[in-house]
Amino acid sequence: MTVKDNLLNILENSEGNPLSGQELADRLGVSRNAVWKAMKGLMEQGYELEVTHSRGYRLIRSGDILTEEGVRSYLPDDLKKNKIIILKTVDSTNTYGKKIAADGAENGTVIIAEQQTAGRGRRGNSFYSPDKKGIYMSVIFRRGQFKENPDLFTICAGCSVCAAIERLTDKKPLIKWVNDVYLEGKKICGILSEATLDIESGTVDSVVVGIGVNLTTDDFPEELKEKAGSIGEPVARNHIAAEIITQLYRCLDRSREENLADYKAHSLVLGKEVHYIKNNEPRSGKAIDIDDKGQLIVITENGQDVLNSGEISVKL
After folding, report:
1. Is the pLDDT of residue 8 over 90?
2. Which of 184, 191, 242, 263 has its CA 20 to 30 A from that of 249?
């Protein structure tokens, strides 16, 4: 990490207490002049700092500025080396991620945008992504990261978002099969995992996991107002982005059994009546289980259905 990265981390964890230039220099192992240069760099990025000769330096307000340094400061040591790309605007972080993955982007590369102009969801759906109101991110995983279980990425992504929100707020989100995270009856997060193939071998070369979370969005288009929501708490975007990344890696390190147990524990649909389309026929039944492949088991009046994809609806 750079001096500026470490300085930001110290200031953000000082709970608003001023720190002298000498104390910061000692903790960073640099000169006071280097501290001042790093401080100026933070102010140029938009951080609001109080600087006085008598009290020292204090972070007044971060302004919730999304930066590479800010995200990295919250990551554990084993993930601080990951490449982080911050974009002001992009059509879709997944589209961008797939392109750079094809060009050889390294494993663990993270793309986060302030805004998406064409955010994408499953089955061709769009994801509303207004400027500075949410976390719109994608993570690239190369073949060595996922081994034989690329199908677990969507499950792990849902669990990681729930874990991050639970760690940083008092909220208790739930997962609507397959990949939507809900809070208080409204969708606050969409997940899209996309694989790229190695043409020569016909195997999966990389997986791009896209995660969009509504943090403070309150101006949804008319068609989304009844079903979309947001976390609604002042959580620093750098912090929650880093927490989601951290939890995603922790989930991927767990066994399939542990991840499926976590996924089922956060299920919004188990035990409820669900409606869906199968073989072009509308059906309904009670969702009773999620099997070891992540498929939804539904009991209907005509027997048992096993759903491995598609959309379901459930009365919330």
Report:
1. no
2. 184
Cis before 204? omega within 30: no
CA distance 76 to 15: 20
CA 261 to chain centre: 20
The count of residues in the chain is 316
| Pick from 188, 235, 228: nearest CA to 212 | 188
CA-to-CA separations, 213 to 126, 151, 154, 228, 260, in angstroms, rounded: 13, 21, 15, 11, 22
Could you read off the pLDDT of 125-179 as tens digits, one per residue? 889 999 989 999 999 999 876 665 677 899 999 999 999 999 999 999 999 999 8
Closest CA to 63 of 265, 255, 237, 192: 237
What crossing angle do the helices spanning 32-45 and 21-28 adopt, rounded to 10°? 100
Q: Is 141 helix (H, G, I), strand (E, B) or coil?
A: strand
DSSP 30-83: S-HHHHHHHHHHHHHHT-EEEEETTTEEEEEE-TT---HHHHHHHS-GGGTTS-
Q: Check: CB of residue 59 under 8 Å from CB of residue 11.
A: yes
